[in-house]
């Protein structure tokens, strides 16, 4: 199916495509196998062997390995490049935390315009713009009798000794973050697609 996409910043045009859509760097590819690995610093953690461009992308689902790397190293969830300036996190305007990695501002504009899930969210979609955040860990601590997972957000030091399995890193959004309705922010920032918000990545 052909998609009517907005202009792509060069870093997005270079991404692998699936079904005519540039696949975000953080996305999971369904050729993957998830296992539990042991790390000296983080203890038990989910591992994933998916590779960008291999198999079919699972749009809207993050690879656990790339998600944690993006959160730790300030990498853009859309293009995978380093974020050196302000970043946007997309979700709702009042979200206290995010498991979605931050985005370059121009990548956020493209994502809001091009992603069908975000487009369908309409007025419910929001975003926060900030320079920094603190990290917590999303740990799987067990399984309920109905086979749903028991999960808790823990500080990294507690997480490593909890015995649980680290799934994702969670960004705690600071009180200094700027909060917007996505439609309002897009109105003021759509020019970033043709005038990128940062220099070379």
Which structural class fits the helix and strand makeup? alpha+beta
Overall, the morphology is globular
Number of helices in the DSSP assignment: 6
Fraction of helical residues? 10-25%
Largest sheet: 4 strands, antiparallel
Taking all Cα atoms into account, the compactness measure Rg is 17 Å
What is the H/E order? HEEEEEEHEEHHEEEHEEH
How far is the N terminus from the C terminus?
31 Å
Instruction: Output mean pLDDT.
Output: 88
Oligomer: single chain
Secondary structure tally: strands: 13
Q: What topology, given as strand order, has the largest sheet?
A: 8-12-10-11
Short description:
The chain is 22% helix and 32% strand.
Question: What does this 3D model show about the protein?
Answer:
With 201 residues, this protein is of the alpha+beta class. 22% of the residues lie in helices and 32% in strands. The protein is built from 6 helices and 13 strands. The strands form 5 sheets. Strands 8-12-10-11 form a 4-stranded antiparallel β-sheet. Strands 7-9-13 form a 3-stranded antiparallel β-sheet. The chain is globular, with a radius of gyration of 17 Å. The mean pLDDT is 88.
Write the layout of secondary structure elements.
Elements lengths: L9 H4 L3 E2 L2 E2 L4 E3 L4 E6 L3 E6 L8 E6 L1 H10 L13 E5 L5 E2 L6 H10 L1 H6 L4 E5 L3 E10 L5 E6 L1 H6 L3 E8 L5 E4 H8 L12
Antiparallel strand pairs: 1-2, 3-6, 4-5, 7-9, 8-12, 9-13, 10-11, 10-12
